[in-house]
Amino acid sequence: MKALYLLCLALGSSAFAQTITFKGCPILFDDSVYTFTKTGVDAYNKNIYITIPVTGDQDCGGLGTCEFKIQWNNTLTRWEFLADTGNGTFTNPNLIYYNSTGNSAFVNPPANTIGTWVENTAITTGQCGGSLTSANSTMTGDVHTSTLGISSDVTKTKIQIFPNPVSEIISISGIEKAESVYIYNMAGQLVVSEAFSKKINVSQLTSGVYLLRINTRDSQIHEFKFVKK
């Protein structure tokens, strides 16, 4: 292992580059500051962040060189903080922290004050000082800092999609500030991505069950299952 390549969440976002700046785990990371840049989205529309540039020469204090990544693990429904053992390939990464507390509705990871970023002591041997907090770390930028963006059941009852099952056009009512629409198949693959419209053409989809996700301008997310005939 090229030294334990640890992934430090760093946030510092601008209107164009979505970045995370992190400082923490000083024993392993030698009190360094790391910056992660959004490099794309996964099949579940979750953002992926990697320390840039990936050149294999990023200093990680006592660990030597490293590359880091923050990504969503849909199987375990949690955000993960990963360390590469190579030059940014992340083929067999080490899990440093994970956060699985109420974050499934967001496309970006939680800050160190939301839920609990748990230290994976099996890898760090406890050298990071335990779970991330505002006292032992800083995490700023493209992270969410509250859980207010999660749509409530009361709100969802006001929004309707119809008809369901549907053959060609699915209509959406009860929402005005929507921004984008995403449709996923049951394998988690993104099959439709477009600007919000109250009428969505799904005639091109094969028969089956799908998940429709609506993102709003005030960072709420609403999800509905529907059947394509």
TrEMBL record:
<feature type="signal peptide">
    <location>
        <begin position="1"/>
        <end position="17"/>
    </location>
</feature>
<dbReference type="InterPro" id="IPR026444">
    <property type="entry name" value="Secre_tail"/>
</dbReference>
<dbReference type="Pfam" id="PF18962">
    <property type="entry name" value="Por_Secre_tail"/>
</dbReference>
<protein>
    <submittedName>
        <fullName>Por secretion system C-terminal sorting domain-containing protein</fullName>
    </submittedName>
</protein>
<keyword id="KW-0732">Signal</keyword>
<feature type="domain" description="Secretion system C-terminal sorting">
    <location>
        <begin position="161"/>
        <end position="222"/>
    </location>
</feature>
